[in-house]
Amino acid sequence: MMYDYFVDLFGNTVIAGIASGILMSLLPLFIFILPYALFAVLAERKVSAHMQDRLGPMRIGWHGWNQTIADIIKLIQKEDIVASDTDKPLFNFAPILVFAGSYAAFAAIPFSSYYIGSEVDLGIFYIIAVTGLVVAGILMAGWASNNKYSLLGSMRSVAQIVSYEIPTMLVVLSLVMVSDTMSLHKLSEMQTGYFWNWYIFGGPGFTLTKFLLIPSMLIGFLIIYISTLAEVNRVPFDIPEAESELVAGYHTEYSGMKFAMFFLAEYANMYAVSAIVAALFFGGYQSPIGYLGNLLGVEWLIPIEQFLWFAAKGLFFVFVQMWLRWTLPRLRVDQLMAVSWKYLIPIAFVNLIIIGFITLI
Amino acid sequence: MKEYFSNIYTALVTIFIGMKVTLKHLFVPSVTIQYPDVKPELPERERNRLYVNMDDCIGCDQCARACPVNCIQIETTKALPTEDLGKTSNGKKKALWVTGFTIDLAKCCYCQLCVFPCPTECIYMTDVYEFSEYQRSNLIYDFVTLTPEERQQKRDNLEKFNAEKEAEKLKAASEAKPKTETEPKKDQPKE
């Protein structure tokens, strides 16, 4: 796909091969995740500051835009502390596993019609499966730290992620029933055209099912957004790393670059779930209002525009996550479980059945 | 059952109300003052570092006596009759060289009691509050405008003058010695 794009652009297979090879291997990590994480950490601090009528970082660069870079330099310089009573192999392996889990999810996320890491037909299924590694990594970190706060945090985290995966998957399943595909690329392709073809507005085509689907889709979107919020341990579902109760949860004992890996994984995860929500309900990389490339007759502009649209949609949902963080208080453990098992799962299940009936007609 | 749905409803509604509030605050101008770059506006009668305008100081020592923590040290040297020190801005005649005027701001309690007794209004509070130092001795401020040599010169001048006067007095006394011996001392109590 990337290769085809460059063949069209350059008309030379060798250059296209080299360019697509470099971009294919580097795009997710170096061109997207790292700059995104740098941006998101700063955005988090700025958004939180302005929501509390503060200014946030202001001293490094214009409005503190270099703050995260300075933080990264500090983290690289820091001593890597491994406490003597930790289980060292597991302790050292856990951040890698957590990061690998969240990074692997990016393989099946379509950034544009010409770029998807691996076009597996089981895209969304693969993402849900591979993010399971994160759970294992978190539990490993908490257990190996040999610290009661770490262990409590990781236990809460695992309980939370496991229970919130059920409503997520029920909503994904209803989407799969409507669209007949598990590939996020195909799902995005189906929602082409204008924004009324998005699944949040009932999907493509003007049929009776489209209008019948709209309320169910809205409910489905709300459920998947709430449950993915819980899966990435964001406020109001941040009991695994509740600062006031558990110091920092499962990464209490980590310092320096290992801590940075947890941090990076957390922010990568935030984008991953936002991207999934965007791809399932909001047309993925499709533009809501048509392409500038089509208007100007410049073919090669379209994939770049699509990439920008996809990044913008994902970042919007990341912003909403930050927005919620400074709006809502933390849930108690029992409330957290009640939300999942008593509210989200039954509603998602009923929603699934309703969507099943609608797709039958 | 009714409670179940009303719970969902209140949860969603309150979340949206809360989100509206926080979104509004996102666009409220921040209250932060970027301190070293932007200074906060201080109250009208704030009390900060003391300053002494030595041109007006007459060395009357009233501020030092008013100070509750004794942080003001004043040393004065009498001017010679031939010297004219001029007048202060409010017309008081200066008669003393102020050869020492130090304020130990590490001791100063910023009570402003020294400001009011000053007859020439030459000691007052400024708006400077950033004067921290690494050495405590650096907080002893010397306000005298004379150089150390000049101060020494003033003291020497006075000493010389006094010595001359003393010498003159002695001379005069020795000349009038027979006279004084005959007269009984006045302040001696009679037995």
Task: Briefly summarize what is shown.
The complex is a heterodimer of chains A (361) and B (191). Chain A has 361 residues and is an all-alpha fold.
Describe, in plain words, how this protein is organized in 3D:
- The complex is a heterodimer of chains A (361) and B (191).
- Chain A has one domain.
- Helix content of chain A is 69%, strand content 1%.
- Chain A has 14 helices and two strands.
- Chain A has helices spanning 2-10, 13-51, 67-77, 88-104, 123-130, 132-145, 148-179, 184-190, 208-231, 243-246, 256-281, 292-296, 301-325, 333-360; strands at 110-112, 115-116.
- The two termini of chain A are 36 Å apart.
- In chain A, 45% of the residues are buried.
- The mean pLDDT of chain A is 83.
- Chain B is α+β, with helices and mostly antiparallel strands.
- Chain B has a domain at 50-149: Alpha-Beta Plaits.
- Chain B contains four helices and five strands.
- In chain B, the strands form two sheets. A three-stranded antiparallel beta sheet of chain B has the order 2-3-5. Chain B has a two-stranded antiparallel ribbon with strand order 1-4.
- The N and C termini of chain B lie far apart (120 Å).
- The model of chain B has no long low-confidence stretch (mean pLDDT 84).
- Chain A binds chain B through residues 47, 49-55, 58, 222, 323-324, 326-328, 343, 347, and chain B through 7-8, 12, 15, 18-19, 21-23, 25-32, 34.
